[in-house]
Design goal:
By secondary structure, the protein is mostly helical. It has 2 helices and no strands. 58% of the residues lie in helices and 0% in strands.
Length: 91
Amino acid sequence: MHNSKLKTYNGNYDTFVTSRNESRIHQQKNYEKEQAEVNKLKKYINENSCGFNVDQAQSRVKALKRLQNNGLTEKLDKDYQFEFGFVNVTE
């Protein structure tokens, strides 16, 4: 369960770990790619908002809004690790 969404995995625990790691790597790559594209668009908009390329800058603003409206890939959260301990009980 992640962000109130339940994702199911087929197979045993080893398959789960492999699939989950591949999914997280894929999500991280998509996030980095989208952030690079957003930064590139923002840089172009800032540099060309005045001058000869105003129309192109405005179309890049629209493209940036489309990207954000379609939903960007979420940044990966820290992978939590749980530790369990047992207390020695003596009577």
